[in-house]
Amino acid sequence: MFPALETELKQETLPDPYEDFMYHHLQYYGYFKAQRGSLPNSATHQHVWKNNPRYLLSGSFGEREDVIPDPLQKEKLLWPTCLCSTVHRQLEAVSRGIRRPSRPENSNCFPGDSLMLGSPLLKSRQLLHDEFGEVNPCLREPRDLFAAFSSSGPLQAPRWPIECEVIKENLHHIEWVPPQPEYFYQPTGNEKLPEIVGEEKGTVVYQLDSVPTEGSYFTSSRVGGKRGIIRELAVTLQGPEDNTLLFESRFESGNLQKAVRVDTYEYELTLRTDLYTNKHTQWFYFRVQNTRKDATYRFTIVNLLKPKSLYTIGMKPLMYSQLDASTHNIGWRREGNEIRYYKNNRDDGQQLFYCLTWTIQFPHDQDTCFFAHFYPYTYTDLQCYLLSVANNPVQSQFCKLRTLCRSLAGNTVYLLTITNPARTPQEAAAKKAVVLSARVHPGESNGSWIMKGFLDFILSNSPDAQLLRDIFVFKVVPMLNPDGVIVGNYRCSLAGRDLNRHYKTILKESFPCIWYTRNMIKRLLEEREVLLYCDFHGHSRKNNIFLYGCNSNDRKYWLHERVFPLMLSKNAPDKFSFHSCNFKVQKCKEGTGRVVMWRMGILNSYTMESTFGGSTLGHKRDTHFTTEDLKSLGYHVCDTLLDFCDPDRTKFMQCLAELKELLQQEIHKKFNELGQDMDLEGSWSDISLSDIESR
Predict the structure, then answer these.
(1) Given a cut of 60, is residue 233 above it in pLDDT?
(2) Reported pTM
(3) Do the strands 614-615 and 623-624 form a parallel or antiparallel pair, or are they unpaired?
(4) With bands split at pLDDT 50, 70 and 90, how would you rate the model's confidence at 652?
(5) Do 456 and 631 touch, CB atoms closer than 8 A?
């Protein structure tokens, strides 16, 4: 009846390049493993698989596989019992990944089953079944690997490691700019240094159990984290007069591990380390309830690890009152008195800890308040922003949103391509590229606010923004480490490693976010010049905003890598400090984004460091940065790009001349410090920049 198909069925195999591609493609992205063929293969399983994906990591290479147990075994129950034994053997062979021998010509199977099940198409783990159990000889559509979420559909819920308990509450904080500058705290010299009491003499009022630390490792993830009933970790109040604070941090970016009540209004707090490590306590974000207005509370974080901190020079913690937000439209603000950062008096003989203590009076009774190291910006915040861009009929024309890759936990790492459509192919090919990224260190939310400011401007209808889109192709990765952001890590991914030391990695499965970012830039360099690369970070020890770059070894471009930072300092003189910039390439930084991209050929390759504190410059001197200050830096990056690429090279040459003068002064200063006279007859420009900066 079907001679062509009958001829094909006699072949041992049916070579198909697309099938081979999809086989390896889906093998990596987790829908099946060749050894077990564990792809859901029915309409029912397809629904479950599509709407409730979950990933496991197998072995040390991080292969993902579906967790629905042996769905092909279940699928066989849907087939009529009249199927011949040959068909069942074929199903068994497919489920074990065994090549099926060609169908015997004297098979007793009826033609319909032979046609469907004896076909080489059965080797595909992507076959669909309709509602009647009939095989549809077509490939299942892959998951949206290179597409964003549907503009009309729901956001993709964050995926958590299965060890993490997550409360089912949607938190939202309003954006707000204080009407008055928020000045640094001025120490009085009378600040108290509380001795650490601990739970031996205090009362534990909140504690996370089974936090994965060093020695454990990430295995699997799911939406909502740990299965089962979410326990109440805060203490149970004994009545309306009970003034115990109720703590919580099991939400996006939260990371409080334990709270101990050591006095009526005094609490010692222990931060959770980065998951699967025993290090990196700096970022904090937690909630308190059951507040009392007229009391002075003291909070002391007891397990910080950095010996130096901006809290020693005036930085204040951030506080958010839910009642103030709902009634007065007031958002995050700097609060705290008697602020001290000091060495922990408890010595366990293993690790040296530092403490941060502060006092505060809450603005309302029975309020819900939050404390944070810096303005939080979560993975859900990013997705809401990107959804608004995808839904904007104008912005979506020149901003294309794709999935760069999936993180270890299966969260989407987004890639934005922003450029105006070119009139001709030649014009499109002539455009240079600019690459920007943020949040490789999840606790440095400063980077997200600068990125938001950049995106707000570059996606606007400003003439300057339109001009930038005309002359550049912007590649933007707004959140490189979504897993770390979600779980509240300060520095690491779920691999327990600092991703900004692994840009040279070949371990795609262990560091997918970094591997795919580097690969994207490598391919971009093959098709066009990348004028600038900049990775947005936060800094915990210095005030202001500054850049780390890489000294050029090419005398033709001597000092050129310093022009952009100098221009930026002129465009944002009250925020950006050129004198804090550094261009030395240290050996310990070889795996960072800026150094790897520089070695790949991007001359202007930078790490932008934004303080957690504020400014010591101009009219903003001694004041904390707000989110608006950081967003304005994103605009200044755009403004500086226009100056940097101005066809009139006057500004560029003026900056270059100024840089040479500054360098000459630095050389004189170094020689004076060494007690030597400079040889004025020699060429001072022949002196190594690295030698100058390392002296």
Answers:
(1) yes
(2) 0.78
(3) antiparallel
(4) very high
(5) yes
Q: Domain 161-372 adopts which CATH fold?
A: Immunoglobulin-like (2.60.40)
Tokens representing 373? 């190291």
pLDDT tens digit string along 545-588?
Answer: 999 999 987 788 889 999 999 999 999 999 999 999 999 999 98
pLDDT tens-digit series, residues 61-89: 333 333 333 333 333 333 333 444 444 44
For residue 476, what are its two tokens?
Answer: 């933007």
Token readout for 311 is: 């809290």
259, containing H or E segment: strand 256-263
Contacts of 475 (CB under 8 A, 6+ apart): 415, 416, 417, 433, 434, 435, 436, 520, 521, 524
What's the confidence (pLDDT) of residue 666? 82
Give me the catalytic one of 248, 252, 335, 609. Answer: 609
| 326 burial level (CB within 10 Å; 0-12, 13-18, 19+) | exposed
Domain boundaries, the chain: 3-139, 161-372, 379-659, 660-695
Measuring CA to CA, which residue among 642, 374, 635, 404 is closest to residue 517? 404
How high is the pLDDT of residue 400? Answer: 96
Cα–Cα nearest to 598, from 537, 652, 547, 552? 552
Residue with tokens 């920049």: 689
Among 478, 423, 426, residue whose Cα is nearest residue 148: 478
The CATH number that domain 379-659 falls under is 3.40.630.10
DSSP-derived secondary structure for 603-672: SEEEEEEEESSEE-SGGGTTEEPPHHHHHHHHHHHHHHHHHHT-SSTHHHHHHHHHHHHHHHHHHHHHHH
Active-site residue, 609 included = yes
CA separation for the pair 280, 376 (Å, rounded): 17
SS3 79: coil
The pLDDT of residue 677 is 61
